[in-house]
Design goal:
By secondary structure, the protein is mainly α. α7 packs across α8. It is globular and about 75 Å long. The relative contact order is 0.15. Bound molecules: tryptophanyl-5'AMP.
């Protein structure tokens, strides 16, 4: 079976709708067709200033949410990045193949560093995409389900794999980004031209999976819509309504065209009210499952330890091969 790897940062207490529709939904589905490796990337989470206590809590919360969403730790390998030291080890080798200018062209780095202010930008933030490449290449993944914002990091990963292979001999698999068509970029409810993100100026446009559904319903009701009255999918001219339609379509598993037909002649208020209901029906049982996983942190830690053990078997083999290829003497 082909292999899939993806990762998510434990940088918030809850994942948001963008994470779910852009990536996590595909993670769950791809368990059916792929050997899956899913990684909670805590090393990436410290590239911006963080609080150790919050990181520990969020790492467990990430695991609980992934399990609650349907990641099955028997079928898939679910693990924490820092439990597998090979990620940092391969990262070093790849850093030595990455051009300084090449890393400097990463738009996420440019955006994040502009937000941080020059004084606080770390070298870790700069090399972040190289660590991401190591995550992927260690498992020789064929496919990487992510949102649109990760496309450039996937291109870099392929470039580094190719560069390593041509310089030292075929070692890595060139991975393909697996980016969903409709939900590749979920937009902020208050600013439908910006992607939904936890770093937005206001939380009013951000729907967290673990928010009280009444709070989320209110955010949906006050979502920015567009001029005109028609409920139709036109991302260029009606970005607000189109975003709501895409979210609705994905959560209710109904094509956008069906929704357009159902809402012909109805108002934005009707659409919002129904979407709030669909969302509530999705998050209510999800939140119950998350709570029950969080009630037993020892069991969660056990699941993650088991995942790390299985991940290491694969990662250590790839790392050993890469070390050998670059000419490191193997310890006698
Ligand atoms: P992170 O933790 O920021 O986001 C996790 C996933 O959610 C997707 N996403 C979105 N998709 C659609 N619309 C949005 N508004 C939206 N916001 C976030 C992201 O594209 C991502 O797929 N660099 C990665 C983490 C990472 C990784 C990896 C991913 C580290 N190593 C290896 C894949 C493979 C990141 O920042 O994810």
């Amino acid at each position: 079976r082909p292999r899939v790897l993806s990762g998510i940062q434990p940088t918030a207490d809850s994942f948001h709708l963008g994470n779910y529709l852009g990536a996590l939904r595909q993670w769950v589905a791809m368990q059916e067709t792929h050997d899956a490796f899913y990684c909670i990337v805590d090393l990436h989470a410290i590239t911006i200033e963080h609080d150790p206590k919050a990181l520990r809590r969020r790492t467990r919360a990430a695991a609980a949410q992934l399990l609650a969403l349907g990641i099955d730790p028997e079928r898939s390998i679910l693990f924490v990045q820092s439990h597998v030291p090979e990620h940092a080890q391969l990262c070093w080798v790849l850093e030595c193949l990455t051009g300084f200018g090449e890393a400097g062209r990463m738009t996420q780095f440019k955006d994040k560093s502009a937000r941080q202010g020059a004084e606080r930008v770390t070298v870790g933030l700069f090399t972040y995409p190289v660590l991401q490449a190591a995550d992927i290449l260690l498992y020789r993944a064929d496919a990487v389900p992510v949102g649109e914002d990760q496309r450039q990091h996937l291109e870099l990963t392929r470039d580094l794999a190719q560069r390593f292979n041509s310089r030292f001999g075929k070692t890595f698999v060139l991975p393909e980004a697996y980016i969903p068509k409709e939900t590749a970029k979920v937009y902020d409810l208050q600013d439908p031209n910006a992607k939904m993100s936890k770093s937005a100026a206001t939380p009013a446009g951000l729907v967290d999976l673990l928010d009280d559904p009444r709070v989320s319903a209110k955010k949906i009701r006050s979502a920015v819509t567009d001029t005109g009255r028609e409920i139709s999918y036109h991302p260029e001219t009606k970005p607000g309504v189109s975003n709501l339609l895409v979210i609705y379509s994905a959560l209710a598993d109904r094509p956008v065209a069906d929704l357009e037909r159902d809402y012909a002649g109805k108002g934005y208020g009707d659409l919002k009210k129904d979407l709030a209901e669909v969302l509530t029906d999705f998050v209510t049982p999800l939140q119950q499952r998350v709570r029950s996983y969080l009630d037993d942190p020892a069991e969660l830690d056990k699941v993650l330890a088991h995942g790390a053990e299985r991940a290491r078997e694969v990662a250590s083999r790839t790392l050993a091969r890469a070390y050998d290829r670059v000419g490191f003497l193997s310890p006698a």
